Amino acid sequence: MSSAIVLPDVVPTRVRPHARRETLRLLLRSKTFVVGSAIFSWWVFCAFFGFAIAPHDPTGITPSTLVGPSWHHLFGTDTLGEDVFSRVLAGARSILTIAPLATALAIVAGTTLGLLTGYMRGAVDDIVSRMTEALLAIPLIVLAITIVVAIGHSTAAIVIVVGVLFTPLVARTVRAAVLAERELDYVPAARLRGERAPYIMFVEILPNVTGPIIVEATVRLGYAVFTIAGLSFLGLGVQPPTPDWAADISNNYNLLESGTYWWTVLFGALAIASLVIAINLIADGITQVLER
Amino acid sequence: MDRETRRQLERYRQDEAGPFESTFIDDVIAGEFDRRELLRRASILGLSVPMVGILLRAAGEPAAAFGATARAAASSSRLRLAIIPPPTGAIEPLTFEDQGGLETGGICGEFLTRATPSKTLLPELAVSWKPNANATVWTFKLRPNVKFHTGQAMTSADVVATWKALASPGSQALSAIGSYLAPAGVVAVDDLTVAFHLNSSVSNFPYLTSSDTYQAIILPANYKMGTFTSTPQTTGAFMITAYNPGVGATYQRFPGWWGGTAPLAGVDVTYYSAAAAADAALLGGQVDLIGQIQLATDRSLFNNSNVQIFKARGATHREMCMRVDVNNPLHDYRVRQAIALTLDRPAIIKQLFNNLADIGNDSPFAPVYGLARSVPQRKKNIPKAKQLMAAAGHAKGFAITLTTETTGEIPELAQIVKQSVKAIGINMTLAIESATAYFAGTSTGPPKGWGNTPWLNADLNITDWGSRPVPNVFLVAALSTLSKSGAGVWNAAHYSNPKFNSDVKSFLAAASFKDQNKYAIAMQQLLLHDTPVVFPYFYYYLAAGSKSVKGYVADPLGQIYLSKTSLA
Amino acid sequence: MARFLLKRFALAIITLFMVSVIVFMVAQLLPGNIGRNVLGGFATQQSVNEYNHALGVDRPVYVQYASWISKFVQGNLGSSLEYKVPLWPLLRPSLVNSLELAAVAFVLVVPLSILGGVLAALRRGRVADRVITLTGLSLTAVPEFVSAIILILVFGLLFKVLPVNANAPPGSGFFTHIRYLLLPAMALTMVLFGYIARMARAGTIEALDADYTRTAFLKGIPTRTVIWRHVLRNSLLPTIAVIATQMGYLIGGLVVIEKVFNYNGIGQRIYTAASNKDFTMLESGVLVIAIVYLTAMLIADILYSVLNPRIRHAGAQ
Questions:
Q1: What is the pLDDT of residue B251?
Q2: Which residue of C has its CA nearest to A32?
């Protein structure tokens, strides 16, 4: 490293381990983050072990249909006599498979695109920015439905659709962060050293924009849960009898109008809400700590 | 039977009756029919009301109040009607193939005859009909003084033009009539008489002219395709005055209706794509009547003191078709039998319909037809199913995908089937598509003659079928070998059995109940052995209305006939 | 100012062009032979070919695109493949309906959430702030179909005070229309409240901490005047931006709400078009939505620049 260039405290390799520990310490002291993480961890646990810990077979059809909550069926049973409690536990798996995968796809693609456009500027930036604007002008759920109808609805299709549709949104955030970074001294320094663009983007700049990316990832995850639940509700989600919160709500909400059978819908709705709240709390906690 | 009755019967036999009528009279005297069946068969043959009275007396039944229903006085109230799902495509009677379309057209349209829920046939635009000696030519007398909504009078030219189109390529009615009737077979005898010359004898042909061939709305000879919703030009009690695709339609009372004045001043139709939204509208007082409901999708309307449920027992059913011509375990009839034996049908009917359905015996002979009732009902029998699987070399089971559509209770039925076949080691995956995707693609042509649409080509599938007053379509289009004449076009199992084909032909031509039943039993036994299709149940067609709806009768096919309906 | 507007307008046109390309390409993804889909399996190959030829779908994709877009620019949207009637008479009422619903939702949610946000900011860290923030967070986390169902149950079926379907009978007056739209608008309010209130709160806090506010307080100007003149105006800036970005969702993104309330909005139209493979309706419908969205963004930009002199002078970004 050339000593002629003043290096402020942004040399990533030296500062980061310390900063990361500090960040973690602050996060653990944030009530918002801790509560959010606790709820989120519970659902992640259910995603892995929900089928195993469920008291009944989540897809087991029985003759005791639409039985209200009791000790035997904590959340009652649905129209096919399946145990709602077991389906809520096991239902975490589908949403917590699809939503994180879609988010991951959007983060990887969006970060790459954001780095490229933010660092390169010029024509690439213009074209991608217009594309982003264009995609934002089309209601997301409409685009998602069209594409899912076109390529057939499978888990992979939903992951790809939501991932691709979220990519420009992520790219936009990352680009803004990169624009600020490239004005800092270390970027021209690297350029002067003769580093090539990919190296500067991914090795020099990327570690310094992880904060906004992490925040973006948590926010996107919340939206992914929402979007996928909406698709599921419209009948474009996982195939029955796979337990799925939104699909189960969609199948049962007509029961509510009779004034009874509320248990077939309420618990799935609470599950979705608690998952989204948990993700929002985590996002809030991270934002507060990183922006301190 | 008193002497007077006998004398009247004999006179009728000599003066008017052809062989078909004579055979029927023999059956009546022999006591083959209950009252219901007698009325039904008399109406197919177009017997006059006095003649039916004589026959009832001959059979020792009380006289009938035939077709005389009191009608409420004309009022200024309008019925708010929910139709679900919205019609797909343009409203064009000739190409009707969906529930929303046939309901929308049927409110203003009329047919030569109308099938009632009790399966009798009422005169509508035809007043009487008669077969020739072997039932290959059927002659219909038309109702005089019928006016179209345009003001022009209806004559045989209009009926002939409508029916020639129905028998021509491009008509969706071909599945019902294509194998018996060519365009040239429709002939005007005089201004008010039309003759149908059939390719073969069909003893129950008049049914095919009824409201159950929902494409057969009589239109003026100068009708132009694409103008059905823009110009009122049918003959019904109501005329369509506005139509907004996917949203709704408006109808006004037709003052020049041949039947007098309908009690309702008009009908306002709203289309719904979600059953729950329609249910909420009925419960919240925003609509008066929902054309079609089901326990599975509209449970909130059942056991509700503010809602009346209209029932029509019929032959509406689901077919689970198993491809007999693919290289997988379904190829073996023993495997197909084993699958059918895993279903606990009474439990399924209880769970999905709260018992508002008849049990199916894996043939289209629904209990309502009264045919082949002597053949024992197939029951759940897991040990036997396991034996059959072992005999077929699949003792350990296999994996297979069941493809179907999100219509009514079908997704639930699919889940029940999936769970049931677990007992014999079959690991079933479900592929439940939207109805649009399920029926998409071509249905004729390569590779096997049924194109590439999922509903006719998936290895294992479940399809929804509407009711018919006679089982002709189910036998010819869905189970016969595919042929140029139009047979087998909906044969999703690709089933082909020459013995079955010839039984179908004999059944259709048979005049006496005894013969019809004989062939029905033969076909029933063949189908139980081959089991190309599982018919788990025939469910009742249900409609729901507020307590103020009077004089509405549900139709097994889902036609919404409102000329006698009123609002209290 | 004129240059700024002109530049914004030009960018919007370019974006529209991109939208048209994207939606056209997505529609090309939908499988199937149009003629075969429309005419059915029983039609002969020749009639299918003739149909496709008459429709022009046997031409190269770029020719089809050019023909579609040039007609669209001239105001000719073509006709629906599914219903075989001209598109605009189908899309226009749906669009108007969507705009009406969005307007009613706006009138409900914007004052409510800005008030909530500003109140929370002024009472930062106290009970009122906690209550408003938590309510907003919880409401935002409930999927719209759930809140819609709850509203139908409570107001439509339990107390029977509001209609459960949102389409007012034809010929009803202004207030009847609003009454029919209240339930879906309330559902939207529940979805958007937390989001907008949060932005308003953040904007207000920032404005409260800003130098000019401190100066104003130091100058002895009464609190109410400071808040009214300096804080509120500045806290509105990010809020407007957020509201503008929600326009896309409000116009055309309400598929689920429209389905639950059986409302004839443009979202429902396009959803039906997509599932029925009505290519022409899908393409033109999405483009119409995009035009409305970009117009809204343009208006938001103007508002933003009027409220924020810095932008006005600096030009676009």
A1: 97
A2: C134
pLDDT at C37: 62
**Rounded-to-integer distance, Cα C177 and Cα C189, Å:** 18
Mean pLDDT of chain B: 90
Cβ C52 vs Cβ C35: under 8 Å: yes
Evaluate whether B289 touches B82 at the Cβ level (below 8 Å): yes
| Greatest CA separation for chain C | 87
Q: What gap in Å lies between CA B94 and CA B102, rounded to an integer? A: 10
Structural element, H or E, at residue B476: helix B472-479
- Token pair of B229 as six digits: 């919703």
- Looking at residue A221, its pLDDT comes to 94
Q: If you count them, how many residues does chain C have?
A: 317
Question: What pLDDT is recorded for position B449?
Answer: 86
Residues 6+ apart with CB under 8 A from C20: C65, C69, C72, C283, C287
pLDDT at res. B25: 84
Are the C-beta atoms of B330 and B460 separated by less than 8 Å? yes
Beta carbons of B133 and B19 less than 8 angstroms apart: yes
Are B443 and C164 a contacting pair at CB < 8 A?
no
Nearest to A59 by CA among B412, C274, B270: B412
Q: How far apart are CA B328 and CA B322, in angstroms?
A: 10
Angle at C209 between CA C203 and CA C212, to 5 degrees: 100
Asked if A80's CB is within 8 angstroms of B415's CB, the reply is yes
pLDDT for residue B48 is more than 90: no
Interface probe, candidates C20, C130, C146, chain A, greatest A C-beta count within 10 A: C146
**CA dist list (Å): B78 to A268, B187, B268, B404, C129:** 41, 40, 7, 38, 52
* 0.80 exceeded by pTM: yes
ipTM exceeding 0.90, yes/no: no
C165, C256, C257: best to mutate for the B interface, most B CBs within 10 A: C165
Lowest average pLDDT, out of A221-235, C145-159, C301-315, goes to C301-315
C157–B284: do the CB atoms touch at under 8 Å?
yes
What's the farthest any 2 CA atoms get from each other in chain B? Answer: 70
Residue A36 burial (CB < 10 Å; 0-12/13-18/19+)?
buried
